[in-house]
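Design request, tokens follow.
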């Protein structure tokens, strides 16, 4: 199955919900007027895109309709796709792994799928010919290290681990040393899930980041936040808090296939100016893809 087909399946609940609203709007279509645009804005808000972003999309759509003299239903849908894609493309969603080694620090709240995502990304990088080391710096959750070890073994990557309860920053320090010794291309660091309003846990992330910056000052560095797509609009405040603490460079979107709230990603990207870099579209080890905005919008509308 191609990525587009997987994405289409993953977005099925979101797309069905959105299609129902769009079909209701266009079932009595007569002309492109203010009433139609207001109904489209309401449909976007109801699809978890968010009030601010929905308003911005419709404002731009209003201008595009006038400028391009759009008069038919298909023209409106095509213009809407363009507006959404422009938001998703506002920031660069390519992965910055230019140095050897490069570092990917993976963060997020509890239960969003960080460990699984790391296994899938490690597998993807390995298939691209890169030598990957994984740091098991979630030292608090029971069985977190064992779970990560299973994924690392499946992906064929080295793992650096310590006993439960040790300082996570010290695990990252050891992992950097081993990454250098093995001449690996990429180090991926797991971290414990943490609520964004728990200061001592967020301070711990800052400590890990300082270790990386000190030991690998010249390295390309990605700080990727894993977001559960079912969270919807609540994810916006999560991203803001993590961004203030560790300057997130991108988002990994998971559990898309279990929700009708997939439209929230548009608002998350727009309001935080943080790109989606990876998107999980299933349970298998190869079900993680680099985000493609055009495919996402086509699968949505």
């Amino acid at each position: 199955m191609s990525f587009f087909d997987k994405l289409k399946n993953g977005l099925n609940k979101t797309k069905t919900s959105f299609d129902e609203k769009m079909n209701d709007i266009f079932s009595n279509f007569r002309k492109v007027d203010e009433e139609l645009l207001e109904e489209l804005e309401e449909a976007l808000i109801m699809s978890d895109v968010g009030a601010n972003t929905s308003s911005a999309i419709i404002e731009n759509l209003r201008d595009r309709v006038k400028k391009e003299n759009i008069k038919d239903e298909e023209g409106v849908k095509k213009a809407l796709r363009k507006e959404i894609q422009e938001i998703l493309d506002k920031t660069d969603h390519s992965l910055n792994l230019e140095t050897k080694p490069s570092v990917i620090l993976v963060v997020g709240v509890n239960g969003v799928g960080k460990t699984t995502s790391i296994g899938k990304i490690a597998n993807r990088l390995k298939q691209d010919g890169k030598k990957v080391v994984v740091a098991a710096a979630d030292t608090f959750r029971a069985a977190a290290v064992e779970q990560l070890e299973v994924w690392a073994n499946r992906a064929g990557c080295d793992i650096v681990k310590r006993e439960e309860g040790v300082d996570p920053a010290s695990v990252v320090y050891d992992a950097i040393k081993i990454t250098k010794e093995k001449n690996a291309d990429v180090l991926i660091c797991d971290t414990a899930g943490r609520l964004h309003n728990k200061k001592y846990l967020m301070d711990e992330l800052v400590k890990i980041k300082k270790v990386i910056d000190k030991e690998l000052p010249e390295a390309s560095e990605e700080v990727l936040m894993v977001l559960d797509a079912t969270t919807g609009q609540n994810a916006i405040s999560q991203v803001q808090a993590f961004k203030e603490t560790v300057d997130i460079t991108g988002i990994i979107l998971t559990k898309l296939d279990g929700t009708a709230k997939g439209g929230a990603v548009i608002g998350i990207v727009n309001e935080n100016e943080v790109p989606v870099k990876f998107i999980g579209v299933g349970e298998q080890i190869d079900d993680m893809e680099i985000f493609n905005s055009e495919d996402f919008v086509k699968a949505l509308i």
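Comment from the thread starter after seeing the answer: thanks! The beta strands are 102-107, 132-137, 158-160, 186-191, 221-228, 250-254, 276-280, 288-290.
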